[in-house]
Amino acid sequence: MTCPTLRSAKQIAQHVVKARLAACVNVLPGVESLFRWQGRVDRAKEVLLLIKTTARRFPALKRIILHLHPYDVPEVLALPVVAAHQAYTAWVAQSVRR
């Protein structure tokens, strides 16, 4: 997911971790995005968030992101994990357990 400012990115990251919707969020400033929006090609400096959660918690995570995010159409993607360190995935699952 991308955010327009470091402040908005950190606010969302802190909220989703505190709410146990994410185990970890990597905040990566300095991303430059090139995209088509409202019929034209645009460019923006953004902050990328890599959010770690479980498939089970994704719907709630998505709901809160759509509520908190300043964009009209935020990038909310769930990517498949084809392989992972079992201890890490266990930690993620434990961290997002209510």
The fraction of residues assigned to DSSP E strands is: 25-35%
Regions with little confidence, pLDDT below 50 for 5+ residues: none
Q: Provide the succession of SSEs.
A: EHEEHH
Structural class: alpha+beta
Largest sheet: 3 strands, antiparallel
- Rg result: 14 Å
Strand arrangement within the widest β-sheet reads 1-3-2
Shape: globular
Helix content: 25-40%
- pLDDT averaged residue by residue: 97
DSSP helical segment count = 3
Distance between the termini: 23 Å
How many extended strands? 3
Kindly describe this structure.
With 98 residues, the protein is an alpha+beta fold. It is 35% helix and 30% strand. The chain has helices at residues 6-18, 58-68, 86-95, and strands at residues 2-3, 24-37, 40-52. Strands 1-3-2 form a three-stranded antiparallel β-sheet. Strand 2 and strand 3 form a beta hairpin. The protein is globular. The protein starts with a strand and ends with a helix. The mean pLDDT is 97.
